[in-house]
Amino acid sequence: MGGTCGKTKFKKRSSNQENINTLIDLAKIANNAIKSKKQFIMTPQ
Q1: Which of 24, 29, 33, 40 has its CA 20 to 30 A from that of 3?
Q2: Which residues, 6+ apart, have CB-to-CB distance to 20 below 8 Å?
Q3: Res 15: pLDDT
Q4: What is the DSSP letter of 45?
């Protein structure tokens, strides 16, 4: 997850398929964030 910033800079010059892969990676990160937020909300404090 920490390497995405470097990846996006590099992928600006690359093919559409690699750009699609970058979007998929970002979507996975977003989904993980949503899941962890739900778990955080449901966790009793």
Answers
A1: 40
A2: none
A3: 80
A4: -
Alpha helices (H) in 1-45, listed in sequence order: 4-11, 16-42
Amino acid sitting at position 14: S
Q: Is the pTM of this model over 0.85?
A: no
Express each pLDDT in 1-45 by its tens digit.
Answer: 455 555 555 555 668 888 899 999 999 999 988 888 777 666 665
Please name the residues in contact with 26: beta carbons below 8 A apart, sequence gap of 6 or more: 4
* CA count, 13 A, side-chain hemisphere, 12: 5
Residue 2 carries which DSSP code?
T
The Cα–Cα gap between 10 and 13 comes to 6
